[in-house]
UniProtKB/TrEMBL annotation:
<dbReference type="GO" id="GO:0003677">
    <property type="term" value="F:DNA binding"/>
</dbReference>
<dbReference type="GO" id="GO:0006352">
    <property type="term" value="P:DNA-templated transcription initiation"/>
</dbReference>
<dbReference type="Pfam" id="PF04542">
    <property type="entry name" value="Sigma70_r2"/>
</dbReference>
<feature type="domain" description="RNA polymerase sigma factor 70 region 4 type 2">
    <location>
        <begin position="111"/>
        <end position="162"/>
    </location>
</feature>
<keyword id="KW-0805">Transcription regulation</keyword>
<dbReference type="InterPro" id="IPR007627">
    <property type="entry name" value="RNA_pol_sigma70_r2"/>
</dbReference>
<comment type="similarity">
    <text>Belongs to the sigma-70 factor family. ECF subfamily.</text>
</comment>
<dbReference type="Pfam" id="PF20239">
    <property type="entry name" value="DUF6596"/>
</dbReference>
<dbReference type="Pfam" id="PF08281">
    <property type="entry name" value="Sigma70_r4_2"/>
</dbReference>
<keyword id="KW-0804">Transcription</keyword>
<dbReference type="InterPro" id="IPR011990">
    <property type="entry name" value="TPR-like_helical_dom_sf"/>
</dbReference>
<dbReference type="InterPro" id="IPR036388">
    <property type="entry name" value="WH-like_DNA-bd_sf"/>
</dbReference>
<dbReference type="GO" id="GO:0016987">
    <property type="term" value="F:sigma factor activity"/>
</dbReference>
<feature type="domain" description="DUF6596">
    <location>
        <begin position="180"/>
        <end position="280"/>
    </location>
</feature>
<dbReference type="InterPro" id="IPR013325">
    <property type="entry name" value="RNA_pol_sigma_r2"/>
</dbReference>
<dbReference type="InterPro" id="IPR046531">
    <property type="entry name" value="DUF6596"/>
</dbReference>
<keyword id="KW-0731">Sigma factor</keyword>
């Protein structure tokens, strides 16, 4: 096995095993700091040893065992120094570590711990992206549009609060689930979005490991709450989005926009499942929530065999419904994109420009403006907007797409 093969195996193991290792250690030791630090040390050890020793047959088991030993070493040191009897009792060498994947909902327990209502909403999301998604602090900071140091402090405070408050590492009881699920869904959606449009230098444009994990965990939540409309809506939204993954990036590594995608490459099975979930929710007659409306919008897009068959009036009507539920400027921006197809780019541009104060640091705002200005023949203004979008974008495929569109301007 070459050095490149080993490096690829380590990268793959990090993507596939990080959450499993952290979850196994968090369950056993009850401390997210211990779990994260030991997991990080295990991966660092892999970087040192695997090139010489070879990639083990079971990378996840090797990483979990190594991380468990590191955690035990740390707790022994702290026990001697600080007389932490409770932590010392957790250390027994003859107890084998739990192999990754043995407990099917281990990562779900970790998510519910990270999403405990005692934590501030933004802390829940950041902590879950770090502990479950395996994202780095700089990646999470970019997603939140905050400074890296501030994000690091936010995650540290969240872990400390979980430890000092004794927040349990478990899925809540059936009575507590409905009150807890909205925060979990918000986090799962953000984990999915990071995979759908991955950020960070050197990152793959689409991280299937994250989208697949978000879908897997959402299915588990749906099994816990089969009658919850928003859980079904989020699952449908993820499936209908994931169905287009194979068509989203060109062979040259450039993002392919929805109107240019090869619809024959879409996953018909995922689309069928997503449409079925949307229809089931519509049949209940219960007013839909945010995720259900977003899923319905995606159902309209994926129902069109050709982009020219898209029912834009229905999409705008759904966005009008969504605006009443979610008044975020991002929703208004996406609605303007649909309005451009009905009422033209001039009307849409006016709506987009009204969002400048709220979205000036958001790359999609400038990319949308650039496209509308291009369609209106305002090349200089369009070029400047593309420049700003490229500057703010963190996804390599998206940067390639925006750069090409900018360079095509006369």
């Amino acid at each position: 096995m070459t050095g490149d093969d080993v490096r690829a195996a380590i990268i793959r193991a990090h993507r596939e095993q990080w959450a499993r290792v952290v979850a196994a250690l968090a369950r056993r030791f009850g401390d997210l700091d211990v779990a994260e630090e030991a997991a990080a040390e295990a991966f660092a050890t892999a970087v040192e040893r695997w090139p010489a020793d070879g990639v083990p047959p079971n990378p996840g088991g090797w990483l979990t065992t190594t991380a468990t030993r590191r955690a035990i070493d740390r707790l022994r040191r702290e026990s001697r120094r600080d007389d932490k009897h409770r932590e010392a009792r957790l250390v027994y060498d003859d107890d084998p570590p739990v192999a990754p994947g043995v407990i099917d909902d281990e990562r779900l327990r970790l998510i519910f711990t990270c999403c405990h209502p005692a934590l501030a909403p933004e802390a829940r999301v950041a902590l879950t992206l770090r502990m479950v998604g395996g994202l780095t602090v700089p990646e999470i900071a970019r997603a939140f549009l905050v400074q890296e140091a501030a994000m690091g402090r936010r995650i540290t405070r969240a872990k400390s609060k979980i430890r000092t408050a004794g927040i349990p590492y478990r899925v809540p009881s059936a009575a507590d689930l409905p009150a807890r699920v909205s925060g979990v869904l918000a986090v799962l959606f953000l984990v999915f979005n990071e995979g759908y449009l991955a950020t960070g230098p050197g990152a793959d444009p689409v991280r299937h490991d994250l989208t697949a994990e978000a879908i897997r965990l959402t299915r588990l939540v749906r099994a816990l709450l089969p009658d919850d409309g928003e859980v079904a809506g989020l699952l449908a939204l993820m499936l209908l989005t994931e169905a287009r993954r194979a068509a989203r990036v060109s062979a040259s590594g450039e993002l392919v926009t929805l109107d240019q995608q090869d619809r024959g490459a879409w996953d018909a099975a995922l689309i069928a499942e997503g449409h079925r979930l949307v229809r089931e929710r519509l049949a209940t007659g219960v007013p839909p929530g945010r995720y259900q409306i977003l899923a319905a919008i995606n159902a309209v897009h994926t129902s069109a065999r050709d982009v020219r068959d898209t029912d834009w009036s229905q999409i705008v009507a759904l966005y009008d419904q969504l605006v009443r539920v979610d008044r975020s400027p991002v929703v208004a921006l996406n609605r303007a994109v649909a309005v451009a197809e009905l009422d033209g780019p001039e009307v849409a541009l006016a709506a987009v420009d009204r969002l400048a104060g709220a979205l000036s640091g958001y790359h999609a705002f400038h990319a949308t403006r650039a496209d509308l200005l291009r369609r209106l023949g305002r090349s200089d203004l369009s070029r400047a907007a593309y420049d700003r979008a490229v500057e703010l974008a963190g996804n390599a495929a998206e940067i390639a797409h925006l750069t090409r569109r900018r360079d095509q301007l006369g």
